[in-house]
Design brief:
- The protein has helices at 3-9, 27-31, 41-54, 83-90, 110-113, 134-146, 163-174, 192-205, 224-233, 255-261, 270-278, 280-284, 293-300, 306-312, 320-331; strands at 22-25, 58-63, 98-104, 124-129, 150-155, 180-184, 212-216, 238-241.
- Helix 3 packs antiparallel against helix 11 and helix 13 (293-300) runs antiparallel to helix 14.
- It folds into two domains: 3-284, Aldolase class I (TIM Barrel), CATH 3.20.20.70; 293-331, no CATH class.
- Strand 4 (124-129), helix 6 and strand 5 (150-155) form a beta-alpha-beta unit.
- It is 41% helix and 13% strand.
- Strands 1-2-3-4-5-6-7-8 form an eight-stranded parallel beta barrel, surrounded by five helices.
- The chain has 15 helices and eight strands.
- It starts with a helix and ends with a helix.
- The chain is an alpha/beta fold.
Length: 332
């Protein structure tokens, strides 16, 4: 039996659970794209405490951005994930929660800024790459592995990649020591059919290896949760989510929905509800995220949400019809 077949036949039933599933909270990292990563320490600590209490497996603090490219004056601490800043929140992290950072290909000085794992509070390096950056991503994966980290890789904007290029990328990554390859719906443009097709493609690419497949979704079409469930049913074991769906633009799969769906008793919904009740309301007065017509339009057009984010920045965005016409002109 192939690995893909084994995954699909061991998915469990509505009254059981699949113990191989691991949940990663990326609230601070993905949400930081909405405020230049300027979260107050109290909010970051609230998300950390929530993840610990809820039994979440991994928490992503932010990016490991190259300070020669990005200014500390323009971006907050969680753009850079300096060890001392993270330890200010977690100390030595005396919990079972594993901490992750995201390292963008060609935007991270990984040789210098990513310390050996034994000298770091982090456990996992998550490499983010576009297809044309795959050689750099492979070098980053090997470097992080040699330093003692678990590794994952996100192939960004998969909905825009030509199929032969995606096949080549998957084949190259399957030959590395990476632990998980993530299917990423960067633009929130995928329907269940695309999720099914690409999930099976990713699974076939890693047959015969120990590499897991992960899913990271955005909510432009209000399908982030549904598409995550679709991937789970197909055997995907690494799941990204955020508290209240907080994330870039339309946001991500909400953690509270995901934990409510999973049957594993190690996960607890109540701490997430407490966080939603105490930490999120104030943030909603400062930031705008979640499903909106402008994000729907960029999702339907399979476009980066940057134009919708700019449209949404003002208190009175103006005509949604005019925005739609503008976006149509830009894609014609």
């Amino acid at each position: 039996m192939s690995d893909t077949q084994s995954q699909s036949t061991s998915k469990g039933t509505w009254v059981t659970y699949r113990p191989e599933i691991k949940v990663l909270d990326c609230t601070i990292r993905d949400g930081g794209l909405m405020n230049d990563h300027r979260f107050e320490d109290g909010f970051v600590k609230a998300i950390y405490d929530c993840c610990v209490a809820a039994g979440v497996d991994y928490m992503e603090f932010g990016y490991k951005a190259d300070q020669k490219i990005y200014s500390r004056d323009k971006f907050g601490d969680w753009k850079f994930c300096v060890e001392d800043d993270v330890r200010r929140i977690v100390g030595d992290n005396p919990t079972e929660l594993k901490l992750t950072m995201m390292a963008d290909a060609e935007r991270t000085d990984y040789h210098h800024d990513i310390l050996p794992c034994e000298a770091s509070v982090f456990d996992v390096v998550r490499v983010a790459t576009y297809v044309h950056q795959i050689p750099t991503a492979i070098a980053m994966i090997q470097d992080a592995t040699d330093k003692g980290y678990e590794t994952t890789v996100n192939i960004m904007a998969a909905s825009t990649v030509q199929e032969n290029d995606l096949d080549d990328a998957l084949a190259a990554l399957a030959a590395t020591p990476v632990g998980t390859i993530y299917l990423v719906d960067s633009f929130g443009a995928m329907y269940s059919e695309e999720i099914q097709y690409l999930t099976r493609k990713y699974q076939r690419a890693v047959e015969g290896t120990n590499i897991e497949i992960g899913i990271h979704t955005h909510n432009n079409l209000q399908l982030a949760y549904a598409n995550t469930v679709e991937a789970i049913v197909l055997g995907v074991n690494r799941l990204d989510a955020t508290v209240a769906g907080l994330g870039r633009g339309a946001g991500n799969c909400p953690l509270e929905l995901l934990l409510g769906f999973l049957k594993n008793p190690k996960y607890h919904l109540r701490p997430v509800l407490e966080c939603l009740e105490t930490a999120i309301p104030r943030l909603r007065t400062q930031m705008k995220w979640g499903y909106d017509l402008a994000y729907m339009i960029t999702g339907q057009l399979n476009c980066h949400p940057r134009d919708a984010m700019k449209y949404m920045e003002v208190d009175e965005p103006g005509s949604i019809v005019a925005f739609y016409d503008q976006m149509l002109e830009g894609t014609s």
